[in-house]
Amino acid sequence: MLKCLSRAISASLAAAALAMAAWANAGQAPSPDFSVTLLVFNRPPYYLLDHGRPAGGFLLDIALAAFERAGIAVEVKEMPPNRILAAVKDHEAPVCSVGWLATSERETAARFSSPFYQNKPIGVVVNAQSPLPSGQPATLDDLLQKNATWGLHEGFSYGEDIDKKFRRQPASALKRFSDARHMVRLVALNRLDAVPIEPEELAWMQHEEPALAGSLRFVPLADAPSGIMRRIMCHTAVPQTVMDRLDAAIAGYRETDDYRRLVGQGTPDAPALPAAAGGHDDRRYNSPSSNRWEK
């Protein structure tokens, strides 16, 4: 009797999982039977919030569509990146967050979905008057040997290899900020020497603030790893069966025209920034040249 009951339950669960996968691949959202709190911070063009409510951002829109297709109800809550990491690690609640890199450290305390977007390779933004050579792409190791001050995004990972290189730098060479756009403005004003940045984010900043373009130079890295794989990170209170449904929904959604449209809107062409040192387009960013790279 018990064996029969056990087989019946297993068969029902298997049938439910297959149904969820079929719904996800067919684009039909089942009725929500699980809910999560989705923790998000404002970071255009990836995630946009208006008074704590979703207001766009192509990664956020993709994630919300995937949750809907998987039949997972979502309540969006705004939270800074460091607090998100703490919530996913420590809080015993079904919380998730969008667009995170799966590092070995994070994987010990969280579950990760399959990737739903891969960034373009990371580069470095410097002032347009920087004496860095503009012919051959530099390596990050070359740039880190310069006597320069770097801006890093607080609580972020640039990939495990790049993170290790920055950890070996003296503390005096690194300044951490919560706002990437503020860091880039400081580079334009020659108050900061360099910032590692993804081309998508820099292109958005250039589009929103054209005066930056004449004051900056984007330096591709010869040793840049493949672009970051963006995933949904969840607390372990979200069961693996629910993560499997989410993965099936992501796989199905990536084949749709809606997905391609969102990615196209969020990933403009590479930053049209000067390939060599040049003048400034706006006096707000007109500042004395710096020779700190040559020291």
Structure description:
The protein has 295 residues and is an alpha/beta fold. The protein folds into two domains: 18-118 and 228-266, D-Maltodextrin-Binding Protein, domain 2; 123-226 and 269-294, Periplasmic binding protein-like II (D-Maltodextrin-Binding Protein, domain 2), CATH 3.40.190. Residues 1-27 and 272-284 have low confidence and may be disordered. 37% of the residues are buried. The strands form four sheets. Strands 1, 4, 5, 6, 7 and 13 form a six-stranded mixed beta sheet that branches. The chain has helices at 2-26, 58-69, 81-90, 104-107, 140-144, 160-167, 180-188, 199-208, 240-253, 257-266; strands at residues 34-40, 49-50, 53-54, 72-78, 95-100, 110-112, 117-118, 123-127, 150-153, 174-177, 194-197, 216-220, 229-235.
Number of domains: 2
* First-to-last CA distance: 81 Å
**Rg to the nearest angstrom?**
22 Å
The CATH class of the largest domain turns out to be: Alpha Beta
Offer a concise description of the structure.
With 295 residues, this protein is an alpha/beta fold.
Task: Describe the protein's topology.
Layout: H1 2-26, E1 34-40, E2 49-50, E3 53-54, H2 58-69, E4 72-78, H3 81-90, E5 95-100, H4 104-107, E6 110-112, E7 117-118, E8 123-127, H5 140-144, E9 150-153, H6 160-167, E10 174-177, H7 180-188, E11 194-197, H8 199-208, E12 216-220, E13 229-235, H9 240-253, H10 257-266
Parallel strand pairs: 1-4, 1-5, 9-10
Antiparallel strand pairs: 2-3, 5-13, 6-13, 7-13, 8-11, 8-12
Helix pairs in contact: 1-9, 2-9, 2-10
